[in-house]
Amino acid sequence: MAFAYRGGVLCAEEVSLEEIARRFGTPCYVYSRAIMENNYGQFARALAGRAALIAYSVKANSSLAVLALMARLGAGFDIVSGGELARVLAAGGNPRKVVFSGVGKSEAEIEQALRAGILCLNLESEAELERVDAIAARLGVRAPVAFRVNPDVDPKTHKYVSTGLAQNKFGIAHGEAERLYRDAARRRNIELIGIGCHIGSLMNDAAPYAAAAAHIGALAARLESAGIRLSHIDLGGGIGIRYRDESQAPVAEFVRAALAALGTRKESLIMDPGRAIVGDAGLLLTRIEYVKPGESKSFVVVDAAMNDLIRPALYDAWHEVRTVRETESGAATDVYDIVGPVCESADFLARDRKLAARPGGLLAVMAAGAYGMVMSSNYNSRPRAAEVMVSGANASLVRERETVEQLFAGERVLA
Ligand SMILES: Cc1ncc(COP(=O)(O)O)c(C=O)c1O
Fold first, then answer.
1. Could you give the angle at the alpha carbon of 223 between the alpha carbons of 172 and 181, nearest 5°?
2. Ligand 1, closest atom to CA 236?
3. CA distances, 389 to each of 24, 148, 383, 399, 413 (Å)
4. Which of 62, 77, 156, 198 is the best mutation target for the ligand 1 pocket, counting ligand atoms within 8 Å of the beta carbon and taking the most?
5. How many CA atoms lie less than 13 Å away from 220 in the CB half-sphere?
6. What's the pLDDT tens digit per position in 164-204?
7. Could you check whether the bond before residue 273 is cis, i.e. omega within 30 degrees of 0?
8. Is the CB of 376 under 6 A from ligand 1?
9. What angle do CA 182, 103, 201 make, to 5 degrees?
């Protein structure tokens, strides 16, 4: 257990969170390198012996320290913007292992990707095929592409994170796929190399993932009969983690089910996990400012807020909250809402939690490594939190806390 109590104090690997708070301040994201490596290893082991690429989904946590760790482990990267591509390159990632997804790639982003020599552009519309073809012709290159096909499979998760249904904005309709592949195959500046899908996030069960794999595998077979041979199948990400008491199928089961659904197909397999690699590897460390007992509700007001971690406000997401001291002496045990200083009623990190809370005490919001820091904002002119990576007995600052001056450094006051 890389986040566990040792001597009554919650630790990240071998470093106490009290020490991290003292050295780096709060609020602060704390990551465990060992958990990330272990999570990556689950994929690597399950895919051993099969031509495969684990393309870590940068959107989940794009900290350079995380990306550099992934690059060292041999990961590829799934990106959705030119900004993410720049981060991957800055962290030492190999552009030949980068797949670029997203419905709205701009001309500048497509050019940037082609110049960097990425593995594959995942096209999401006919108009995007036209755009990529024109840019590749202008640059005098062949653009390596796949289509992201929308298999119309329900991942049975939160409506905001399902992406593979017919009503979602993502991918091309499966009924259109063969026509678009034939069209693309005729273009001199397009090199058709793959096919992909991503049906949504937070899947606890492997069945929808396997159904999407079967669908995409069957489509690859039909394309092959029509003379279009592809070198990879990209099944996307979306494997969930346990936030509360969900029964979560392990990574190996997703891989096994996908490989079984693909049967004898020879294409290499790309998976783009995000949350499953970093989600449980991070926590948000925050200090209690006030304990505010009330008639109908009691509140713990902490120094982190919805601008630091928006998942509870956005998705009603549930994160476990632990006191850093296993037993808080002199603290009032009650059922509290844990809220931040932001002026919104949606500014909560957790609701109705029984806790022993005292002003100055530390809390850890668990499983905040994915879609935490990356979704943070400066709402209420709050500087963004620091980030710390722990490895064994070492805690290193990997992102400085933002300063108030940085918040308005680019702004101008008109005369
Ligand atoms: C194409 C694609 N791949 C991978 C992911 C990562 O999803 P997750 O973090 O749930 O694994 C996403 C998330 O939206 C995505 O759109």
1. 45
2. 3
3. 11, 34, 19, 9, 38
4. 198
5. 30
6. 556 666 789 989 999 999 999 999 999 999 999 999 899 99
7. no
8. no
9. 110
Q: Is 11 known to be catalytic? A: no
Take atom 16 of ligand 1 and give the residue whose Cα is closest: 198
CA 246/CA 49 separation, integer angstroms: 31
pLDDT in tens, 78-96: 999 999 999 999 999 999 9
Residue 216 to residues 52, 64, 252: CA-CA distances in angstroms?
A: 16, 33, 20
Containing 38, the helix (H) or strand (E) segment is helix 33-46
Nearest CA, atom 5, ligand 1: 237
The b-or-e profile of 41-69 (16+ CB within 10 A means b, else e) is ebbbebbeeeebbbbbbbbbbbbbbbbbb
- Which tens digits make up the pLDDT trace of 311-368? 999 999 999 999 999 998 878 899 999 999 999 999 999 999 999 999 999 999 999 9
The structure tokens 């653009």 sit at 143
Q: How far apart are alpha carbons 311 and 305 in whole angstroms?
A: 11
Residue in 168, 172, 173 with CA at minimum distance from that of residue 157: 168
CA pair distance 85, 58, nearest whole angstrom? 9
Nearest residue to 307 via CA among 381, 415, 388? 381
Domains (range + CATH), the chain:
3-31+280-407 (2.40.37.10), 62-273 (3.20.20.10)
Residues in CB range of 67: below 8 A, 6 or more apart: 56, 58, 77, 87, 88, 91, 92, 93
Distance 208 CA to ligand 1 centre (A): 15
CB count in 10 Å sphere of residue 256: 15
Most distant CA atoms of the chain, gap in Å: 74
Instruction: Give the predicted TM-score (pTM) of the model.
Output: 0.96
Q: How many CB atoms lie within 10 A of CB 37?
A: 18
Distance CA 341, CA 294 (A): 17
Residue whose CB lies within 8 A of the most ligand 1 atoms, among 100, 201, 278, for a mutation test: 201
Dump strand ranges (E) for 83-152: 98-100, 120-123, 143-150
Contact (CB, 8 A) for 127 and 107 = no
Alpha carbon separation from 111 to 94, 108, 140, 143 (Å, rounded): 17, 5, 11, 10
